[in-house]
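input
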Amino acid sequence: MTTEIWTAVDDYIIGHVQPTDPVLDAAQEAARAAGLPAISVSAAQGKFLHLLARIQRATRILEVGTLAGYSTIWLGRALPADGRLITLEFDPKHAAVARTNIARAGLAGQVEIRVGRAIDALPTLAGEGPFDLIFIDADKPSTSAYFEWALKLSRRGTVIVVDNVVREGKVVKPAGDESAEGMHAFMTALAAETRVSATVVQTVGAKGYDGFALAIVDR
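output
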């Protein structure tokens, strides 16, 4: 099996169950034009996040790692009219592209981008939670710290999703890979965490071989 086959199947899936979306397409094109790294979730993964948020009936969503706002739009579209999403982005350039994309999607009134280090911003959110759904997709070495803050900003029943946890299998033996080491540390923390029920799902597709962690806060 090859990445080409995985991508072809992703295209097949998207062509059958997800109609073309000019707003989301424009968001990806804006990211490419601005020279942002091509590391956003795929269309199928974005729709998965959207459905999770709807299943959860989320009214307050927290995202750690905005990039160009592609996943933000998917999540924001799941909110009710009075819902709110806070997304944290370190890079001002990324935030500027995301702000334009989010406005084009008609979500500027519900989505707030906060620029700066997420580890500094997370403690300031104590009065704005608890959040119903938290999506972590930022710098991988800091994932354990982000997860700990996610727990602090949660309630019983909060859904926490952590992306890119498998790292093409390198999570098993990181061997000096900083991102894989970060996910290895996160997996150790997740295994020891008694406040959640969790699993990890390996994925293949247009984004290659990776996976995500899904946790529900039990207490």
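quick obs: Strands lie at 60-64, 84-89, 111-115, 133-136, 159-163, 196-205, 208-217.
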